[in-house]
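Priority: low. Protein: Iron complex transport system substrate-binding protein. Input follows.
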Amino acid sequence: MTRLPARLALAVAATALALTACGAQPTGETPVAEVTAPAVSEAPAGEPVVACGDPVEGFAVTHDHDGEPLPERTGSGDADLLTAPTSAVVADDTIDPVTTGVPPQLPVTVESCDGAVVEVTDTSRVLALDLYGTLAEIVFSLGLGDSVVGRDTSTGFPEAADLPVVTPGAHDLNAEAILALDPSVVLTDRTIGPTDVQLQLRDAGIPVIFFDDTRSMDTIPTHIRAVAGALGVPDAGEELVERTQQEITAALDDAPTGARSPAVAFLYLRGGMVQLLGGPGSGADSLIRAIGARDVGTEAGLERPFTQISAETMIGVQPDVLLLMSAGLESVGGAEGLTLVPGLAQTEAVADGRVVDMDDTVLLSFGPRTGRVVTALAEAVYE
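Result:
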């Protein structure tokens, strides 16, 4: 598929935006980042890269990279838990590329998660956009950060800080801001949108690839391999999967063994309007298991990743620890404000100050830095 010149693509986008309600408004001319185009080698003929592969069950949580079972970690008791509200902070939030200077093998044919078949012929100007910052973290970790020309608000690591933001309205994509960067390929998923914008980019001739929306420990290798394959660096992807596995395995040693696993409730809060309890599939449930704890939402029998908080549920499950995103905790006025959320004032977790928060751009990213996330959580939850 031939890409339209940037100026013509901008005109197409402007017309389309006039006919659709995208929500985000242009914020003026967006600077185009200068990048060095990577060298390209001819890709061998083969099967298309599949952007929606199956998760690797138990990845880094129950087995190591060689398939050997890890020791069971059941946590410790209340006496070893935190005694005051604590922020879990990763010791180092920088990106460490697994390799650099590897020429992508192009072209690559990719089966996008929306059913489209996309051909990638140029990775010199990459945009990786999703709600969690996962895709950009993977691209930088693969050693292709110099080719990234913009970012979303969830991409919060230092190496991307100076890139133009293409989601000026919270997490809404701005088509004009994206097209002004003249990307050669866009990596995304349906956690961010509006979807009309992503499809407008594809109509403008830009290869747009949708990846799996799910985030958990088990999906980490799937995402790494899919992104690496789509960008023509599959060998770097395998190296990154192995390194990530090793780091997570080492991080599990920080989750102490003991007689009783603490019950942790993951709360997604946005002031008084959005107050949700995480359950199976929230992503946080796999992190909670990784530190030897029990996910309250799963044990309560929730059937969805997120369910509206009720006083009856919170009083009934009595979590030992509350886990939140930092912005969510701030939105209710900090740890003291949790007493205004239904049922939380009646929990020992709030009464005893056992509240852990973590930066929104880090907690559920489920990328190559996840080993550091597990370590930070374990250090925060266990005294």
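Confidence is low (pLDDT under 50) at residues 1-33, 75-79. The domain at 6-54+94-248 is CATH 3.40.50.1980 (Rossmann fold).
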